[in-house]
Design a protein that fits this description.
52% helix; phosphotransferase activity, for other substituted phosphate groups; Aspartate Aminotransferase, domain 2; alpha/beta; 10 strands; EPS_sugar_tfrase; 12% strand; Bact_transf; two-stranded antiparallel sheet
Length: 450
């Protein structure tokens, strides 16, 4: 049964059909019938459907972010590549070239991506201009969070939520929960958004019973208690439900493989393509200006709080305070060459050696000096959460305006917030976005780069 305003029941089978059409039609176009085409159709159909179910490739909702869709396409493309090559590896006697197979895979994934984004954006326009695919919603509870949700519904019609009413259960002219439920049935409301802080346990149980018996969707807004604002991970131990404080995407084996592969490829490109010729040139300039080593190494805290040596091109005159005091604007310890390489972030390039060794990642929370890490761990709430993943050469906090000298407590607090958001919402697309933003900022020049 397809409920009013919900077209996902139609869209998913249609999307499966269109994508499978691309897969088989393009196979005929690229390979013809000079190979076991029927076997290919059967094998790829089963593999694509099983892969899509396992990865949630077609689990796209109106509130799904584009970055997540890009991540799904990336994962699907990589596994699809392995599946196709495994098929032609089994039928190697047909001598189909690897270049042709690669062109086929890229064309298929390009067509799938165009169709996926086409449907995604067409539905947004459909909701905005024609008023279709709309969900009728109500909000229970009146507070700051429900007010934010009300504004979201009213200012973002492309998501297709039509807010009918907000119920205040605690005001002078308060409504009762029974009034809310009667209104939901009367107006055929589809989704109920309830504030946890505005309901008692008895009312929550009553509301859950109501939605279960009337086929309505119930979603809760967290109250002011911090645990409800976490990205909790729900799992079962046998039949016992267990909540974990957070789910870290990079803990999943496939994501770990994907990120490590990205790190290795990019670090090799930088080391071979840039550091191989830049190091002798910068090394000569650094040596000519001041005595001391070309590279500067300093202990930092990394994954699981373990210490490692972080490498940089030396940008300061050797001094005993390097491990105790961070650099500040107009710092006299910085050499003339150092000012240039720090302004362009070239001093950070040797950290790609750390990435290749596995101490760091290209993108992640920036590691601090050991002395500062101890200090912030005692003063800043949740600072240690950053050490659940490898530190990075650049990070979400850095491209969001929080790089360089920590000149206030609010600066480090915001860094921690961005770092925690990154580790809880990682995707390869997010890494690519941060890398390109970092390159752009380095070429443009940043005020905090000194």
């Amino acid at each position: 049964m397809f409920r009013s305003g919900r077209y996902s029941g139609f869209l998913r089978p249609i999307s499966y059909g269109i994508d499978l059409f691309f897969i088989h039609f393009l196979a005929f176009h690229f390979f013809g019938l000079t190979f076991p085409f029927f076997n290919f159709v059967v094998f790829l159909t089963i593999a694509w459907i099983l892969l899509s179910i396992r990865s949630g490739f077609y689990e796209i909702y109106r509130f799904t972010h584009i970055a997540y869709i890009m991540s799904l396409l990336g994962k699907q493309g990589i596994i699809f590549l392995l599946i196709v090559f495994s098929f032609f590896g089994f039928y190697s006697q047909y001598n189909i070239s690897s270049a042709t197979i690669f062109k086929y895979i890229l064309t298929v994934m390009l067509c799938v991506a165009i169709m996926k984004f086409g449907i995604y954006f067409l539905l947004k326009k459909f909701r905005l201009y024609l008023g279709g695919n709309v969900r009728k919603v109500v909000i229970i509870g009146l507070n700051q969070k429900t007010e934010q949700l009300r504004k979201f519904f009213t200012t973002n019609p492309v998501y297709g939520y039509k807010l009918y009413r907000t119920f205040n259960l605690k005001g002078s002219d308060n409504d009762s929960l029974e009034d809310c439920m009667a209104y939901v049935l009367q107006e055929n409301i589809e989704e109920i958004y309830a504030s946890v802080g505005e309901l008692s346990n008895k009312e929550i149980a009553r509301l859950i019973e109501f939605v279960d018996n009337n086929l309505k969707v119930l979603k809760f807004l967290p109250d002011n208690k911090e645990i409800f604002s976490k990205k909790l991970d729900f799992s079962y131990y046998g039949v016992l439900p267990i909540l974990s404080m957070r789910k870290i995407p990079m803990d999943e084996p496939f994501n770990k493989f994907l990120k490590r592969s990205f790190d290795i490829v990019l670090s090799l490109i930088v080391i071979i393509g840039i550091l191989s010729w830049l190091t002798p040139l910068l090394g000569l300039l650094i040596k000519l200006e001041s005595k001391g080593p070309v590279f500067f190494k300093q202990k930092r805290n990394g994954l699981d709080y373990k210490e490692f040596y972080c490498y940089k091109f030396r940008s300061m005159i050797p001094n005993p305070m390097a491990d105790l005091h961070q650099i500040s604007k107009g710092d006299e310890r910085v050499t003339r060459v150092g000012k240039i390489i720090r302004k362009t972030s070239m001093d950070e390039l040797p950290q790609f050696i750390n990435v290749l060794k596995g101490d760091m990642s290209v993108v992640g929370p920036r590691p601090h000096m050991v002395s500062h890490t101890h200090m912030y761990a005692e003063r800043i709430d949740k600072f240690m959460v950053r050490h659940f993943i490898k530190p990075g050469i650049t990070g979400l906090a850095q491209v969001s305006g929080f790089r360089g000298e920590v000149d206030s407590e609010s600066h480090i607090i915001n860094r921690v917030k961005y770092d925690i958001f990154y580790l809880e919402n990682w995707s390869l697309f997010l890494d690519l976005k941060i890398v390109f933003q970092t390159i752009y900022n380095a070429l443009r020049g940043e005020e905090q780069a000194y």
